[in-house]
Amino acid sequence: MSMKSMNRRSVLAVATAIAVLSPTLVLAQAKLKVAAIYSVPFEQQWVSRIHKALKAAEARGEIEYKASENVANADYERVMREYATAGNALIVGEAFPIEAAARKVAKDFPKVSFLMGSSGKPAAPNFSVFDNYIQEPAYLSGMIAGGMTKSNKIGLVGGFPIPEVNRLMHAFMTGAKETNPKVEFSVSFINSWFDPPKAKEAAFAMIDKGADIMYAERFGVSDAAKEKGKLAIGNVINTQDKYPDTVIASALWNMEPSIDRALKMVKDGKFTAEDYGQYSMMKFKGSDLSPLGTFDAKVPADIKAKVKAKQDAILAGTYTVKVDDTQPKAAFK
Fold first, then answer.
1. Using H for helix, E for strand and C for coil, what is the string for the chain?
2. Which pLDDT belongs to residue 198?
3. pTM for the full model?
4. What pLDDT is recorded for position 29?
5. For residue 119, pLDDT beyond 90
6. How confident is the model at residue 44 (pLDDT cuts 50, 70, 90)?
7. Which residues of the chain does CATH 3.40.50.2300 include?
């Protein structure tokens, strides 16, 4: 027998021994299988941030990622079960409209880790929750809006009056009041997460009543502001590149801190039921105020100074933006 043949056999023998004695070492070399389920298109603001963070992990070679968009509420549980039985170690999604069903699936698959957007609490052993706690930059963006309005009327158009929308609107309005006590608000909800035409119509109605700045919690609002020559404040994503003369600034949500932590916990075998909400806050870089960009020279210097001071106080822990999840109700007088 040749030396070359013996060496090959030796290598195979060692590899086999490692696989038998330490299967976890072999498994560690495989990519983590992750699935995500979204009830709206990938492009929708909220979902786009989760999708972006998971795509980044995929690009780094850390995970094998599959995702489904536009999944109807009636089909959500079925899709969750399909992904759970397909060997995915982590399933990410949004449980808001189907809380009971999502939690039931997690209970039926205790070895699968679930990280779901939810207004509820985590459930042991494997159901963790997250939410976009970006009320801090929402407050800062409100300060800018209060300092920029000429009519002292600001309109807010949201999807549904649920906690994660309500808290951002309240923070925005409180921030606006800080820089402009005279400002008035009008709030409406379109009862949809993705209906740009409906959001646009709601914004038009407020602009017709005197609003010169719109809080664009939904897609479609900035389009209305642009058409009418008014201004807008963005939410979750930065759309100033599409509306350079309309969108002053945006409260940004960065899902990477939450996703990256969840992936590490799964890989380390330490994933438990937790509330990931805090990882969306500014101190964890889970949220931020976008650069003023095209509006840098248009925002008054004193307003920029006040925003900077407030941001520093938030990061230092000397100022806390109040979380108010109640439905905001306001209309121009």
1. CCHHHHHHHHHHHHHHHHHHHCHHHHHHCCCEEEEEECCCCCCCHHHHHHHHHHHHHHHCCCEEEEEECCCCHHHHHHHHHHHHHCCCCEEEEECHHHHHHHHHHHHHCCCCEEEEECCCCCECCCEEEECCCCHHHHHHHHHHHHHHCCCCEEEEEECCCCHHHHHHHHHHHHHHHHHCCCCEEEEEECCCCCCHHHHHHHHHHHHHCCCCEEEECCCCHHHHHHHHCCEEEEEECCCCCCCCCCEEEEEEECCHHHHHHHHHHHHCCCCCCCECHHHHCHHHCCEEECCCHHHCCCCCHHHHHHHHHHHHHHHHCCCCCCCCCCCCCCCCC
2. 96
3. 0.85
4. 53
5. no
6. confident
7. 30-130, 135-253+285-316
- pLDDT tens, residue by residue, 231-243: 999 999 999 999 9
Residue 132: DSSP 8-state: -
At 27 the pLDDT is 42
Class of domain 30-130: alpha beta
- Domain 135-253+285-316: give its CATH superfamily: Response regulator (3.40.50.2300)
